[in-house]
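Format notes (please read before filing issues)

Several people have asked whether sequences and structure tokens are stored in separate files. They are not. Every record keeps both together, in the order shown below: the sequence lines, then the token lines. Line labels are part of the format and must not be stripped during preprocessing.
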Amino acid sequence: MATTRDIRRRIKSVKSTAQITKAMQLVAASKMKKAQEQALSGRHYAELMNKVLVNLQEQADDDSHPLLENRGEGKELVILVSTDKGLCGGLNTNLLKAVFKDHPDASFVTVGSKGRQAVARMKKDLLADFHVTDPVDFTQVKTVSKFVREKFLEGAFTKVTVAFTNYVNTLTQTPCVETLLPVSPLTLGKAKDYESVGIESDADAGEVPDTGYEFEPNASAVFDSIVPQYVDYQIYQMVLESRASEHSSRMVAMKSATDNAESLIKDLSLEYNKLRQAAITNELLEITTASLALE
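Then the structure lines:
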């Protein structure tokens, strides 16, 4: 049975832990707000780019650009966007579970140390690892995009997908795997939780860009300019979604840890007071018994 001294030590330890988790909660909340604003501000642009590219592709030949070419079955490359740090709940676990289950034979390019460690632990084919600072820098993401485009154009892979955590709100983040290359209206137009990118809803059906495009000087030159930019921004937006999800999940996890620590401190304090009261009562009984024995 624990003594009052043991309980005092445990209360002190839990209080120290609560101070750390509270500080981490406040830091995550500050970063979360900035990351959410950055992710939300880019969604409309990503949606508009998708609609324009889908409409352009419908009016052009299938071989207008190699990034639009569907090569059928073959080797797959997965861009795995994870976090650099832990203590963010089941964010990375849920994402990695979805990726390794549905893409067991893929090669990987990782963004984030947690993804790199998981790929190495699972003994998967890791081609490259990239570090993206916080807040997210577009020039750093372009490095990832350039590497992936080159691998696809070389013919090393027939399909490129991006695995990231899709930010829905502060309490909800869902793992998501989206096809990036070859660029396809069926893939990139698929509804996502963020703004349903590329899909016409009843509310915005009248806002779809005009499809009467004319290519100048030709379709190939237009796609040479717009498709790489589109790939760059899609990866950038997905990294932003993942970063917003990370800070939101960490803030919620640290708040839960702080609340649990405070609840544990209350329980330990109650137990300590009971033991202390019992010890005082025993001492009074011993004094009373000794006093009666002396009479």
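For reference, the curators noted about this record: The helical segments are 4-58, 91-102, 113-121, 138-153, 185-188, 219-294. The longest strand covers residues 159-169.
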